[in-house]
Amino acid sequence: MFALFRQLKYWLRRSQQQAELTEELDFHRQMKIQELEASGLAPEEAARIAAREIGNTTLMREQARAVWVPVMMESVWQDLVYAIRMLVRQPIFTVAALGALALSIGLNTSLFTLFNAVALRPWPIKEPRQVVDVQNVLAQSYGEHSTAGFSLAEYRFLKEESKSFSGLVAMREEEVRFGDETEGRKSRVQFVSGNFFQVLGVPMALGRGFVDEEDRLDNPKAVAVLNYSTWRSRFGGDPGIVGRVIKVDTVPLTIVGVASAGFTGTTPSTHDLYIPFPALTLLRPGDQWASGFLRNPRHCCSHVAGRLLPDISKEEAKAELEVLNKQFRATHGDKTAGVLVSATGMIAKPGAKRQIHLMFTLMFLGVGMILLLTCANVGNLLLARSAARQRELAIRRSIGASRRRVVRQLVTESLLLAFGAGGLGIALAVWLPGFLLRRAFDEIPSFPVVPDLTVVLFAGGLSVISCLLFGVLPALHGTRAREASVISSAVSVSQRFRLRNLLLGIQVSLSVVMLVAAILMFRGVQQAAAIDPGFRVRGVSSLSIDLPAEMYREENLKPFCEQLRLAVDNSPLLREAGLTWLVPLSDSRASRGFRLPDEHEDKTRPVWFHEVSASYFSVLGVRLVAGRSFEPADRDKGSVIINEAMASRVWPGESPVGKTFVSGTPRQVVGVVADARTTGLEQVDPTYYEPFPPSALPTFLVDDARLPAVKAALGDILRQHQPRGSIRVTPLSANLERSLKGLRIGAAIAGALAMLALGLAAVGTFGVFSFVVQQQTRELGLRVALGARPFQVVQFVLRSSCLPLVVGCAIGLPGSFAAAQLLTGQLYGLSPADPLTYAAVLIVLGSTGSAAVFLPVRRALSIDPTVALRCE
Amino acid sequence: MRDAPELLPGTLEMLILKSLTRGPMHGYGIAQHLKQISDDVLQVGESSLYPALQRLLKKGHVQAEWAASDNNRRARYYTLTRAGQKQLESEKQEFDRLILAIHRVMHAS
Lengths: 872, 109
Fold this sequence. Notes:
heterodimer, A: alpha+beta, 11-stranded mixed beta sheet, 7-stranded mixed beta sheet, 28 helices, 22 strands, B: alpha+beta, Arc Repressor Mutant, subunit A, 3 strands, 15% strand
């Protein structure tokens, strides 16, 4: 300990220590001379002998120093200082290499930051690793959704019976409005079990979390806990907020606490406040759904999570829960296919897994390629530089530096570059992901999207890897040349060319892949925009009615809707409007179980359904293919219209009109309509339509020509029955734009990455050819002097390095073909082998390549033999 | 000049510590002292003396101080520290044991 301290003290005062040692040795010499003079020698002779006996004082000083500072450490320090000096001396190289590396490491780190925040990060709670997500595996699979939560009754059963958890919590997201407002922005609220904050270990900034008293169904309490950011933004951080009464959906609630700033919730979206489950009966009195949700053992769903006891594994908890789950379901005549117990990070969720994986895999591939390209490029730059430094390196080696020492010096420079770039990359990652989320996706995530320790380690790892990629190979290569031959400036070029050409080939093939991907995605957007959705988008608008919140309670809503419907049916104008509650392209749809009458219940499979009026088809221009449209008499008879996709799937080769099936209740097909992509542009799914029920609140679809008249007529009806209601108009084309927006952003990102890749490859090509010309100036000069024609000069330059371009393309094209298969889902029917795309890629590559080669070739042509031959 | 006999590793440091028990000394003084006491057998070269002194400084067995020498020149005087004293004790015991053992081996019949 003290030794270390002394060592440090020495290090801090090292120059003074050296001076002292010199003085000490000098004193020693003087004494020696005195001694020798005393024994009778002449002064000069004495000085000579003394000097000889003491020997090499520099070496001695070195040895004395080595006692304090390990040689290795000191030479690393020297390397570092030297590396900084070298980088500063070549500012253009340094800025170019640092910029390119920082950009590509930054892109990778940004993406990882996003991935880390979205997928890897567990909930922001105390010891999140103990907390697991519990999900029920459905006995019947509904497409992708094969898992769901539990009914609150089952949750209470599990909570009572389970021995694996120190606590189980339940939660459910709903939307409310603050105050007495009946319009405007809705706020997200999370209904939670009373033990929520206590089990998750969420500290409170103010007040308290809920207590068991507040989680009793027979005695609901009107209390709420605020989210920290809501407390700051909506209530101005009022320190006296606890005890204050606020109104939510016009119902007064008492604030009992504010969650701490670090708790951003258990979902990616923000919740403004937390309310105990029983209070649902206060907020939605008389709502059948609410009372069913709170009590009915078969009423889905609340999201359940629990904190495992310290010595219980996920598997043990799962085994126990499965027994309890079966037991509970059996008592209530229900089936189950088991329980899933998973970590709380989003990546662990079975539903989200595939989607997240695909998206991030594609993006990581993209930015990873950029990094590879950059490494190849910087590697080439370093190679060129080490060629220019041949003489310096050779001299260092000939005066005794070992090859290892020189390589270490070069690698230190690369490491310095890489870590500098890594630092800048992290800086980029602090800013870019948030910027992208805000600008491109209009999304303000509840969770922090900033680099944490994991991200910093990731960036560090990337820096090291990229340094290995771009730095070590050139360093080994650069130190291979024989000293003597280099000093006499006869450069052996061929071997170094091989590596440069390899790197160039890699760059070309990678940029081919990136280009193909980007152009395919652009074509995919085009394709999507050009898709015939099967219904009219232009010139149709939707009119929705917004009602005051209390009107949405069932006992209020139903009579209003029936009055509304009566009025609509009595108006010739409104009868022409299409009624639906699923606005086309609004990303919502609904499914129900389906089976043929003679099939067993077990064969029930999901099918999409739509509730519409007869005019829905005429307004949207969806053609009736067979049978008839709805008639007023169809309302309660189970008559349905199916789309062609369903017809060909269920009754291939037969006329479906008149056929029956079971979907909840028995249905009979009365007509078939053409396929319409109303739920999404990607594809058409089997769908059936049933008459719009009179008790539901419709959205009206109308032709823009009639919009003012319809709006006025609806306004009249509203004034009569519900003066506080209002009408909202949205053109369908706005929905179309929105669903294309994601695609456009994807294509834009891919395009930006591809441009970057192309730029890097172009710079790389330019660099290689310039280098060829520069290195071969003498030979070219000689050839010109001996009468070579310009075209022969061009041939000579191209021949040396054209091969990698050709080979790069030859590898890149099939490679990109393989990569394009991954994109199939994004292409809207466009083939991954789209010939136009490949033609475009070849044109872009060809023109960029020519441009990159043009300047070096022109320089080769302008070589003046006399100058060239004299220059060395 | 006759080559000085090779010292056992680590012995030089012990000899320096022992010399310093007589009081503070400068490097030249230590070399002279060793030479005189050993009847010119131990001639410590400067190239091993000064690194050894640095090692002792690093270990904290000696302290260094600048002071005026007998002939009024500035010289660096080394003093034994308490840790050095302890070190000397234990090294001396170890050394005696070793010498005795070698002696027994060499004079065994």
